[in-house]
Design goal:
The complex is a heterodimer of chains A (about 290) and B (about 290).
Chain A lengths: L1 H43 L4 H6 L12 H9 L2 H32 L5 H10 L6 H14 L5 H26 L3 H8 L4 H12 L1 H17 L2 H6 L8 H11 L4 H35 L2
Helix pairs in contact in A: 1-13, 3-13, 4-7, 4-10, 4-12, 7-10, 8-9, 10-13, 12-13
Chain B lengths: L1 H4 L2 H29 L2 E2 L7 E2 L3 H8 L1 H31 L6 H9 L6 H11 L6 H8 L15 H26 L3 H9 L4 H12 L1 H16 L3 H6 L11 H11 L3 H26 L8
Antiparallel strand pairs in B: 1-2
Classes of the chains: A mainly alpha (about 290), B mainly alpha (about 290).
Amino acid sequence: MAQIQNEGQNEKTMLTRIGMILLYICLIVVALFQLYPLIWLAMFSLKTNTEVFGLSPFALPQDPQWVNYLNVWENGNINVYFFNSVWITVTSVVLTLLLASFVTFAITRMNWKLNKLTLGLFMVGLMVPIHSALIPLFAFFLELNIVNHPLSLILAYTAFNLPLTIMILLGFYYTLPKEIEEAAVVDGCSVHRIFFQITLPMTTPVMATTAIINMIYNWNEFVFVNTFISSDKWKTLTVGIQNFIGQYSTDWGAIGATLMISIIPVLIAFLVLSDRIVEGIAAGSVKG
Amino acid sequence: MNKVMSNKAVIALYVLPALVLVMAVIYGPMLITGYYGLMEWNGIGEMTFIGLENYKVLIQDAKFWESAWHSFLLAIFSTISLAGYLIVSLILAGKIKGSNILRKIYLIPMLLSSVAIAQLWVKIYDPNNGVLNSLLSSFGMENPPVWLADTDLVLYAIFVAILWQYAGFYIIIYYAALKGIPEELIEAARIDGANPVQIAYKIKVPLISGVIKVTIVLAIVGSLKYFDLIYVMTGGGPNGASEVIASYMYKKAFDTFDFGYGSAIAFFLLIITLIVTWITRKLTASEDEVQY
């Protein structure tokens, strides 16, 4: 009797084990599908054109051509685009975080009647497709004489990132205890000191999350740069590599190298801050 | 407390810069789009008021409806693919070792720019040196398709790239929601003899239905305004076979300088987005929200 039961259990654990293996295979296939194109990209970025056209695309680079990276960096104008991407991204993120923190502080900490309405006004922005504001925005920036000037990008990035940033900050501000700020008021602190010296330092974790999400968005943005910026001097990487690839469409090594240069900073940020990124994406989307 | 924290001047100082910026860059232009749609304008010269002419042309523009159909198809594909993401998330949120790493690997494509993704997939689909056709040839396929140059296949080929880009995003959302389900509920069902598939289908999925609804709205609205990847990958071609609403609008405005007509399309896109958001929310709203 005991033996039969034992055999039944063995069979069951066998089945569970096979089931588990199948599930793992399924998960790993998805992981390969997500990862392999990038590995393939890294490989052809290190190949010569003879290798790309003559050998199997699965082959490893025979003699890694790091010179591809050096060439596009120096001769393909990629260094200019790269630094434009860096400073325009950083400036917009700082501006967005500062303005969004001001608004969130005023909405959650200060007493006024229209705070809910104001919050609603910002939140509607989450639903507006970029394209439905693009033409008048272009006309407006023409009027202001900032078309083909980085200010057009900084204003557009900051404005379009504000709604999501405020939404993520808001969730954090609601969970923060108000006692410290109340004590500061009793001690005669001014609002500005409370904001800059008490509240802002307390929100560093959520600011880190929103900063990284904003950075990725700005770094990858395409439509605004493509529409507002025409001179090479101010282009960022997305449009820069697009133009570069248009000119050298058959030089696979060079194309691979430019693409790698554009994604490496994001990959590094991801390796260091992946938990924050995952958290930011989950926080930013679920509330819809 | 009240006096310091009710200072109107400070409130104005804190709120107005952001509010003015959002009004000037998002809401103002959004409303003006509808007004520009009533104009004939090449972007530089004088604007002429032509009433509803642009909208009349729009209704009869076969190319526009073709691109609207493609946007609609993408929305359908994206919604269906949510089921696949949900299954992967259900497996992942079970007691799987390494789920943390796997989840992050899935997310990587989502962090890359659409331009980089588009250029990479152009290379993957390259008929002669691309990795896909080499694979098909090595399996003995004689004339593998030309993918992005094939009017019948191009939209599906693009959709695979979209799938690659967004899989991690939805899996992260579903995973977070599934991890939020209290363990006791699952345990209780297990004691009652429910198998893992029953638990997933009858307990977990209904419990996260709120999140599923949000992702359906995200997938549909996201597909309707889809632009970057398609614009870079195919430019809407070949012969308009992958044109979508946003790419058609962009071409009309910034390539042929028909800003009035472009605005009419953009305004139509805005209205459609708002209506679809509203309808999807109504359709997927259940009588009573699940509570635990």
